[in-house]
Each structure stands twice: as structure tokens, then as C-alpha cells.
């Protein structure tokens, strides 16, 4: 299977969104890790983007709105699958 770079990126983003929905809908160690804070001081340099910020940017929702939307399984699944479909040319 030979994918070009845009198709590969679209596939990765779709999988990331579906995994986010899976994690947010269950009480698990992964959810605790995703939402957790790390003690200590921050390192030097530019701050890394958080995983949830990345999800919020992909969905054009705020982080808490994306988390609430992910709790509704069918709605999140349809949004994640339809978000990156190419539009048909007119």
C-alpha cells in the first residue's frame, strides 16, 4: 500500500482522534496519564504542544469541549471519520 504524504498524515490524524475518543470514554491508567500533571520545574526552551492541544486544533474545539464530545461515542466516531475526508470537486 503506497500512500502519499497527505493521505498518510490524514490517516495518522484520524487514528489519533479515534484513540483520544477511546481514552476519554473509559476510566483507565491512560486517561489518568493523559490528564495528569508532572511535578517539578519546566525545562528551558519552547514549550512542547500537549497532546490534548493538538486534538483541539484538529477538531477546532476547545480542549474541554473536545473531551466532552469524546464522551459521546457515536458522535465522536462520526466526527473523527468525516473530519479529513476530501471534498468532492464542484
Description:
This protein has 90 residues and is mostly helical. It has helices spanning 5-24, 29-35, 51-59, 63-71, 73-82. Helix 1 crosses helix 4 and helix 1 (5-24) packs antiparallel against helix 5. The longest helix has 20 residues, at 5-24. The protein is globular. The two termini are 29 Å apart. Keywords: Endonuclease, Hydrolase, Nuclease. It comes from Elysia marginata. This is Endonuclease-reverse transcriptase. One of its GO terms (molecular function) is endonuclease activity.
Blueprint of the fold:
Elements: H1 5-24, H2 29-35, H3 51-59, H4 63-71, H5 73-82
List keywords for this structure.
single chain; 90 residues; mainly alpha; 5 helices; 61% helix; hydrolase; nuclease; Endonuclease-reverse transcriptase; endonuclease; endonuclease activity
How many beta-strand segments?
0
H/I helix tally: 5
Instruction: Give the assembly state of these chains.
Output: single chain
* Arithmetic mean pLDDT: 79
Structural class: mainly alpha
Largest sheet properties: none
β-strand percent reads under 5%
Q: How are helices and strands ordered from N to C?
A: HHHHH
Distance from N terminus to C terminus (CA atoms, Å) equals 29 Å
Keywords: Endonuclease, Hydrolase, Nuclease
Protein name: Endonuclease-reverse transcriptase
GO molecular function, one term: endonuclease activity
Amino acid at each position: 500500500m503506497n500512500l502519499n504524504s497527505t493521505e498518510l498524515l490524514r490517516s495518522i490524524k484520524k487514528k489519533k482522534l479515534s484513540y483520544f475518543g477511546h481514552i476519554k470514554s473509559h476510566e483507565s491508567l491512560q486517561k489518568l496519564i493523559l490528564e495528569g500533571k508532572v511535578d517539578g520545574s519546566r525545562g528551558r526552551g519552547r514549550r512542547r504542544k500537549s497532546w490534548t492541544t493538538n486534538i483541539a486544533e484538529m477538531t477546532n474545539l476547545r480542549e474541554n469541549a473536545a473531551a466532552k464530545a469524546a464522551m459521546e461515542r457515536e458522535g465522536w466516531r462520526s466526527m473523527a471519520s468525516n473530519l479529513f475526508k476530501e471534498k468532492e470537486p464542484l
